[in-house]
Design goal:
With 232 residues, the protein is an alpha+beta fold. Helix content is 30%, strand content 24%. The protein has seven helices and nine strands. It is globular, with a radius of gyration of 21 Å.
């Protein structure tokens, strides 16, 4: 399954079948606009749950979206009630998906032992508590998403290529925080600063220059980075 091809067909379905803008679609599905852009640009996969929802409620063939086979629309679309708007149906479908999702998240046991970074230490395997990662890592679950880092511009901040970031879109960014920003339609992770009342995006790698944001630039902050999950 080619991500870019799937993303291109997802965009066709959104525009030609649903007739929605990115903003309308993102709001109805309950994701950020940047997530929809990532799907349609092939930077991340369109979730199977979303493809299944589009087929069930709008007749968009999942087979067509995945591999380009069959017709884009199935006969099911013709059976929908004309009086129901696209946005209403989409919102209902998303609510059904959320209700059917397994919740609460499984809890992970935490051992009483504190691991030594020096000489080995003796310890038992007593479980002191169980950790819910959703409660621990996500302050605003409905406005939080994961994004994978590509590149080395933030290595001095401990963020490397391939790391997974947890991004909160519900908080207002403050100077000094690491953020996901969109500049001229492209996403980037940088440290957000204000200098002389003007925003600046700073890399945490001396090889990269600051990005000074001017009034004529297309610029927005998508969210604040809350955590970095590293893979070893």
């Amino acid at each position: 399954m080619n991500k870019k091809d799937v993303g291109r067909r997802h965009r066709q379905a959104r525009e030609e079948v649903l007739g929605l803008t990115v903003a309308e679609y993102a709001q109805a599905v309950g994701v950020k606009e940047v997530t929809v852009y990532a799907w349609e640009a092939g930077r991340s996969y369109v979730p199977h749950e979303v493809m299944g929802m589009l087929e069930k409620n709008y007749g968009v063939s999942a087979s067509w979206m995945i591999v380009g086979e069959k017709e884009k629309k199935s006969a099911a679309k013709q059976e929908r009630k004309k009086s129901e708007s696209t946005l209403e149906l989409l919102a209902q479908a998303v609510d059904e998906l959320r209700k059917s999702a397994p919740y609460p998240a499984p809890k992970i046991p935490m051992l009483a032992l504190g691991v030594s970074a020096g000489l080995p230490a003796e310890g038992g395997d007593e479980v002191t508590e169980e950790i819910d990662l959703t409660e621990m890592l996500l302050e605003h679950p409905d406005n939080t998403y994961f994004i994978r880092v590509v590149g080395d511009s933030m290595t001095d901040a401990g963020i490397g290529n391939g790391d997974m970031l947890i991004v909160d879109c519900a908080v207002k960014p403050r100077s000094g925080q690491v953020v996901i920003a969109k500049v001229f339609g492209e996403l980037t992770v940088k440290r957000y600063l204000t200098q002389n009342n003007a925003p600046v995006l700073r890399a945490e790698n001396r090889r990269y220059k600051d990005i000074a944001i001017t009034p004529d630039m297309e610029f927005s902050i998508v969210g604040v980075v809350r955590s970095c999950i590293k893979h070893f």
